[in-house]
Amino acid sequence: MTDPFLCLGLESSCDDTAAAVLRMDGASPTILSSVVQGQDALHADFGGVVPEIAARAHAERLDTVTDQALADAGVALTDIGLIAVTAGPGLIGGVMSGVMFAKGLAVATDTPLIGVNHLAGHGLTPCLTDGVTFPFLMLLVSGGHCQFLIIKGPQDFTRLGGTIDDAPGEAFDKTARLLGLSQPGGPAVQTAAATGDPARFALPRPMLDKPGMDLSFSGLKTAVVRAKDAIVGPGNTIAQQDVSDLCASFQQAVADILVEKSRRALAEYFALSPAVRTFAVAGGVAANTELRTALQALCADHDVAFCAPPLALCTDNAAMIAYAGAVQYQAGRRDGIDLSARPRWPLDTGQAPLVGSGKKGPKA
Ligand code: KG4
Ligand code: ZN
After folding, report:
1. Which residue's CA is the nearest one to ligand 1's atom 5?
2. Fold of 5-124+313-362
3. Closest ligand 1 atom to Cα of 360
4. Which listed residue, of 10, 90, 207, 291, carries a Cα 20 to 30 Å from 39's Cα?
């Protein structure tokens, strides 16, 4: 394959069906199109993502989002030089839908195929959006994942720590459900929190008393349930101000936990003595304004550049998959038609797996 080349990215590991076309000119990427079709309405009645419904919707929609991405980019399928598809970790039915679809396209057009780790997609996003160079420290924080990574290359990820149970995005979603707010919960909780008092409820900050960078959010979730029980009035109603105060207190607790653990992760990262110090956030929860502001302040204190990609590229998308696939292909990785879908796929295989299970299945 010669430069420049076009990479088609495909993502279907949770509840977004996405396709994107990326142009790679040497090491320079340009996003020509990025289409994301969410499934919130399909899962709304169930209080969470239903894997079977998600998988079926991906299978039905992958061809239309791909057509749309090609049309938006103004290119034909035959112009594509590489097909990159999320091959895990995630809800296995959805991942299989994407992998099977990508294999069909690859065989039909005789195009190289590469399976991408969804977390590598999020992890390499700062290189795509902001030209961040290796090494950098990343907090990857989403609905299914929460981990600190030192990223030294397209395939070189060292995990410093991560959640031992739930991911913060799940906790945001659960808090929203509990308080009758809309899904996904993160933006709804953030909006309600804007008029709330973050000091009203004394919620726990689990594991801050323990050394290291592992995190836990299940105790915080339980504390929110208890706090809600204390403010429920007659007829199961909760005053609007109480909802706002509880959302603000919860959001503050999440931010406090992530900021303190980030402070510790920065110390480990400094031991590498990088010439340019950069701390990046990615994943859906990185869209949270309060968290971004708090992390930005932490970085300013430590004289570290802070990178928070645009919101549309923080949440699940296929441009990040196309980019991760393209740079890993350039680095020599190859996959064949025997590529398999993986429900779990740790980025840092040198570490013991994290325990727990979340919205997207077992933690990577
Ligand atoms: O990265 P993502 O799109 O999907 C996963 O890989 O999980 O993240 C989705 C998660 C959801 O839990 C959603 O509630 C959360 O990101 N989220 C937010 C915000 N926007 C999205 N959480 C807090 N504040 C936000 N503004
Ligand atoms: Zn994600």
Report:
1. 143
2. Nucleotidyltransferase; domain 5 (3.30.420)
3. 7
4. 291
Q: Whose CA is nearest to atom 19 of ligand 1?
A: 186
Q: Are 347 and 102 in contact (CB under 8 A)?
A: no
Where along the chain do the CATH 3.30.420.40 domains lie? 5-124+313-362, 134-310
State the amino acid at position 83 in one-letter form.
I
How much distance in Å is there from the Cα of 187 to the middle of ligand 1? 8
At residue 42, the pLDDT reads 81
Q: What is the pLDDT of residue 354?
A: 66
Q: Write down the pLDDT at residue 353.
A: 65
Chain center to CA of 17: 14
Diameter over CA atoms, the chain: 69
> Quick check: 143 and 173 in contact, CB under 8 A?
yes
Query: What is the pLDDT at residue 360?
Result: 44
Q: Which residues surround ligand 2, an ion (CB under 5 A)?
A: 142, 316
Mutate to test the pocket of ligand 1, among 285, 293, 314 (most ligand atoms within 8 A of CB): 285
The DSSP secondary structure of 277-327, one letter per residue, reads -EEEEESGGGG-HHHHHHHHHHHHHTT-EEE---HHHHSS-SHHHHHHHHH
**What parts of the chain have a pLDDT lower than 70?**
352-364
Give pLDDT tens digits for 255-300.
Answer: 999 999 999 999 999 999 999 999 999 999 999 999 999 999 999 9
CATH 3.40.50.300 for the 134-310 domain, yes or no: no
Give ligand 1 pocket residues (Cβ under 6 A): 14, 142-144, 169, 172-173, 184-187, 190, 283-285, 287-288, 315-316, 360
DSSP-H helix ranges across the chain: 40-43, 51-73, 92-109, 118-130, 168-178, 185-193, 218-231, 240-270, 289-301, 311-314, 319-330
| Sheet order of strands, 278-282 included | 156-162, 146-153, 136-141, 278-282, 305-307
Phi and psi, residue 36, nearest 5°: -130, 120
Identify the pLDDT of residue 113: 98
The answer to whether 164 and 355 are in contact (CB under 8 A) is yes
* Ligand 1 atom at minimal distance to the Cα of residue 170: 12
